[in-house]
Amino acid sequence: MMDTPAYSLPGGQVRPFFQPILSLQTKSIIGYEALGRELLQDEVRSLGSFFHNTAIPEGLQIALDRKLRGLAFEKMANESYNGLLFVNLKPGWIYRMFQQTRTLPTLQMLERHGLPGNQLVVEITEESFNGKLNELREIIDIYRRYGCLIAVDDVGSGFSSLDRIATFQPDIIKMDLKILKKSATHDGYKALLRSFSIIAEQMGGSLLVEGVENVTDLTNAMSAGARYVQGFLFSEARADFQHPNCYSELLGSELERYGRNTYATYQKLTSAERRLMELAEKLSGMEEVREPDILVEGLLHEVPGNGLRVQLCRGDGVQISASFERNGDGVWRKDVTFRGSNWLWRPYFIPTIVHMQKQRSGMLSQAYTDLDTAKQVQTFSCPVAVDTYLFIDLLIH
Asked: Which parts of the chain sit beneath pLDDT 50?
């Protein structure tokens, strides 16, 4: 008697569906992610569970994956579609196929349909990979030489995303908001988004945020520096390509609202900076600070309403005062924990001190994520006396 397999094969028609990917730069659809769907009468089912079911023989999964990809390429060719197509490729499949045959079937399919490589974005999916990463990099480079763009998918979801980013140097880093929301606080996942945006920028790539389900998600993606967005706020995956500008009005209005609110925020910061520059002028004539805590306490009433934290440090990085922090009720609290701490290890510290020594004036830092609160802040700093500097952290609301 034969055992019943612990899986079922798709019983209906299988087809690729296409979820749009939009550019915040052009406010238009620049590409689609190809996703497998099963059509059963009037019902459309995702094939995600089929491809993630480890009980299904890999050969069956690969065969269906290639069928779907071939149908997607055929549709592109028949409709003269000239945008990008994002396709998911498991690193293990790519690696084993090339090791065994020295061929890459996806590139062969592109050639058969007369499609250029620069229309393909190869998404390296997040999965456990047991091969040699440097050899996989060499295979990925074949796609790149063919003109394809490289994306790393589901960054932050586990396994070795950071290793893959460093190894592949992708053109696009793709993050799913839904994954981050499950594992971090609201402020925490925004901080993670910003960190990967910085990584993408430093590598010459772009951040794509998927899982954008509402305008709040879209705003968070914008503030994180996303160039591309994808999600149900715009569209689910559909059987057909859509007009490139069908979401331009929505994106335009949200970009305008985001710009208006962000400009207002930074105008407040500019106003706060002017007040703090006036404070710096008053402090500039001091020769030495004998009572650091008393000096800081006397300044708290002049700190703007978005002030979060105030402290004094020497040029060698040592904090000589307590930290004075404002709680949610606007009340200042004295914390002696960090007195004597050395902040020389922070990347901004030495350049900031050198600038103040040279200019003998206050300065406002670039925005960054505060280690304690995971909120966006800027730091105003100014010289107070010989080798003594005031630091005021300001929340960016």
From this structure: 1-2, 159-160
